[in-house]
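User: tokens in, sequence out, please.
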């Protein structure tokens, strides 16, 4: 199973199948988290029946498992927020609801556009509904 996950990660890094960098980054991180989770799970399974492992190594692997999963969850939440804000950016553009974007983004529209909009986000402009 570990070799299959490693092969999957290698193929993903070679071909980068998604059209946006943040999706490729999330997929890479999810593969790494899955590998860490499998490895720590194997460690616990092999050491369950009276092991040579110390309690320090148990705590180390448990902490490693929790930290990697939490970091992935935080990164996922960050990218979901950015994706949501990109859509709100285009929906509120040129309307009286621009204050909604500023409230959600905690920054101005110009600052957000400079730091977070990418050329591939233009497709969002064509798909957003018109506000009254």
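Assistant: Sequence out:
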């Amino acid at each position: 199973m570990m070799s299959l996950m490693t092969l999957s990660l290698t193929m993903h890094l070679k071909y980068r199948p998604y059209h946006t960098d943040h999706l490729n980054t999330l997929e890479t991180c999810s593969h790494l988290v899955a590998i860490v989770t499998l490895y720590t799970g194997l460690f616990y399974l092999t050491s369950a029946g009276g092991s040579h492992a110390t309690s320090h190594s148990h705590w180390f692997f448990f902490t490693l498992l929790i930290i990697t999963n939490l970091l992935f969850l935080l990164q996922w939440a960050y990218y979901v927020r950015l994706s949501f804000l990109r859509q709100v950016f285009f929906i509120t553009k040129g309307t009286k609801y621009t204050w909604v974007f500023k409230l959600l983004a905690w920054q101005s529209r110009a600052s957000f556009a400079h730091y977070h909009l990418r050329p591939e986000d233009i497709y969002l402009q064509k798909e957003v509904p018109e506000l009254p």
